[in-house]
Amino acid sequence: MKSLVLLTCSAVLLNLVFSTTQANSSFAQGRQMSSVNDFAILSPRERVAPENQLLLERLDTLLPKLMAEQQLDMWLVINREKAEDPIYFTLVPQPTFAARRTTMLIFHRLADGSVEKLTVNRYPLGAPFTAAWQGGSLEQQWQALAELIIAKDPQRIGINVSDEWPVADGLTSALHSRLKSVLPQPFHNRLVSAEQLVVRWLEQRTDTELAIYPHIVSLARSAIAEAFSSKVITPGVTTTEDVAWYLRERFSQLQLPVWFMPYVTLQRPGLTCEQDTAFCGQSGVIRRGDILHTDVGICYLKLCTDTQEMAYVLKADEQDVPEGLKAALATGNQWQDILTRQFVAGRTGNEILKATQQKAKAAGILSSTYSHPLGFFGHAPGPTIGMWDNQSTTPVQGDWPLYANTAYAIEGNIKQAIPEWRNQLAQIMLEQSAYFDGKQVIYLAGRQTQWHLVR
Asked: Long-range pairs for 116-120 at CB < 8 Å and ≥24 separation?
């Protein structure tokens, strides 16, 4: 049960938020969406050319910098069909659906700083890779790889093995053993983990990627706007599962892959939401007066999104959201601002989390922070900024520093007492895709600062 102290503090906070929102009725970068039909979407065939151009830019301009940063002379990405390395598809041209038998990619840093892109495969990949060997038996393929490495004589050879980063652990035990068996003993000590290169490769965004990312995020946000409308929801009839499947099928129609099943929950007066409950909300038939929440993630042009937004289902005699819920969303936006102001290049995820928690507590906000990087994966590597089930430090991933031109899901929630609900707590769960340019956080397609309304 909520204590009188909590209710009193919530009432004071509510008055503070009201005065804040009256003075400044909208938070920065707020943006409302309407329909996915407002945005162009390329067909799968039309996506190949821009995806390959993006890949070429990354391989030619970004990879040399990252290999120099990590002091690697060579990087090996070796995998097999049906057991692809997690990063394999971020390195090869489209359309590619699998590794062909055993596929070997070799990136060799030259004296001038550029990087050779080579393959030792029975099936050549083609541009931008040059085939150093092709055809022959598996035994000949491994021998050709060994001869190439010996001839190039790299001092530090990165391989994808890692205890801590799953995305950097793509070299299987069998392939690792085979690699060592074909290399002369002196080369074994030159094999080092490429985990830091892998994380940097996956988290770092190019200028072109940052130029197209807002369009991709807009698709996700616009689909949510469609789903949270009277076009989809009939109060008293439509269920939360119906809305979730609308989103799933809508993305399928648009040939936009989802990286998890969308989900939708509801909250209403009488459904208990306690201070120590991780997530409030349940499934069921949507009624007037409910608040709705969804979580959606899509990928397009190889870049992924992660978005959570809130809606309110108007009662028959209402024209707008109750003031208490408006204030709660404003508190959610205030928490976002507190979090994003802690983004400073070089700070670790754990440091950002601690600073956010201290400032949110000082502002009287009951919050939980669990933000993460975005990119080729929805849950991408980089600095972890809290986890929903761990609001303390996160070893390794939480100790990763913040770099410029990296993208994030600004994710978390606040709880606030709602006067119109007899001071019952409501949970506002927000997640918006954004990037850090080295100085500030910029939302890729704006953020939700107003409730979606279902009439």
From this structure: 117/59, 118/148, 120/144, 120/145, 120/148
Q: Please give the Cα distance from 266 to 248 (Å, whole number).
A: 18
**Among 313, 293, 229, 261, residue whose Cα is nearest residue 431:** 293
* Contact of 274 with 410, CB cutoff 8 Å: no
377-404 per-position pLDDT tens digit: 999 999 999 999 999 999 999 999 999 9
CA distance 248 to 258: 7
CB-count burial class (<10 Å; 0-12, 13-18, 19+) for 301: middle
Looking at the chain, which residues constitute the CATH 3.90.230.10 domain(s)? 4-42+205-454
Whether 191 shows a pLDDT value over 60: the answer reads: yes
Q: Which regions of 174-261 does DSSP assign to beta strands (E)?
A: 191-193
Record the tokens describing residue 397, joined without a space: 């991933």
Q: What is the pLDDT of residues 18-49, one digit of tens each?
A: 333 333 346 999 999 999 999 999 999 999 99
For domain 4-42+205-454, give its CATH number from 3.40.50.300, 3.90.230.10, 2.130.10.10, 3.30.470.20: 3.90.230.10
* CA–CA distance, 134 with 120 (Å, rounded to integer): 6
In one-letter notation, the amino acid at residue 248 is R
Q: Which residue intervals of 318-444 are DSSP H helices?
A: 323-340, 349-362
Q: Judge contact between 333 and 451, C-beta under 8 A.
A: no
Paired strand residues for 432: 410
- List, by residue range, all CATH 3.40.350 domains of the chain: 71-193
Domain 71-193 has CATH 3.40.1350: no
